[in-house]
Design a protein that fits this description.
homodimer; 155 residues; mainly beta; six-stranded antiparallel β-sheet; three-stranded antiparallel β-sheet; 0% helix
Chain lengths: 155, 155
């Protein structure tokens, strides 16, 4: 019998993967007109742990008419908290309940607990790739129609 | 309405806490006789995320008649994987299926996926505190009677 400690490189060892190009979320940007090609905004590598999932999000650096690359963002359908941990790069975590929003500059070696009812989105404000881990209940559900009021532009 | 991003310092913000003194696990050591006092071997700060839990384990440095401080170790009652992430210090992760065991020196910035049926234990082989995060399904269950065959002594 072989007994392997499976080193968790989610980029190589995942159960499912999501790729988001600009065309998958052009409505999320203030103005997505005139962008050349269809850049990959981010990729998510997901591993299934039974009742929860661990996800590595690789969020590229760039802007859409000056607005920083970001995740689609969502709110959970069930009241489920989530954990975010920044592992590479620089960026912000935006959370919002109804029309009240707050953003924080993410720091490595910190965990961020997303409140159960809050919309949440990551924004890459750096010059390089931003990577973060998230952990969430499998039954959380995703509402991608949640409207975020705050936007982040390169100055 | 206040909207807080809850910075995840599990030592201050936890739902439950476990303290393991030597007297709680003296049968796990080869020889626990003659140890003065009843040292705290480790503490676990646990936060509930609905279908899963996030735990920070703070494993002190020391030995029991030369055998390094370690966690009790367990196997899940249900076939549930678990994630370990070292956040401070130095130590080993021991996993075992039946009588076949393997240990690895844990590295920071790596994730370790524990196989569903494997017993697992952390061992602090360093001179300072060892801390690690773990993420596991709430319904995993814990079998603390699992017998580990491998032991780690200060040379």
């Amino acid at each position: 019998m072989r007994l392997e400690v499976d080193y968790g490189d989610l980029k190589k060892n995942f159960d499912s993967k999501v790729v988001r190009k600009l065309s998958d979320m052009s409505d999320k940007y203030k103005d997505s007109s005139g962008v050349k090609g269809d850049p990959i905004i981010y990729e998510v590598y997901i591993k299934d742990f039974g009742t929860f999932e661990a996800a590595l999000t690789v969020l590229n650096s760039g802007t859409v008419n000056g607005e920083f690359f970001m995740t689609k963002g969502h709110r959970h359908k069930k009241p489920r908290k989530e954990i975010y941990i920044l592992t590479r790069g620089k960026g912000k975590l935006l959370i919002q309940e109804k029309n009240h929003s707050k953003s924080v500059e993410m720091k490595k070696d910190k965990m961020y607990f997303i409140p159960p009812r809050a919309g949440h989105r990551a924004v890459n404000t750096g010059r390089g790739v931003m990577e973060f881990m998230s952990f969430y209940a499998k039954d959380a559900g995703h509402d991608y129609n949640f409207k975020f009021t705050k936007r982040f532009f390169r100055k």
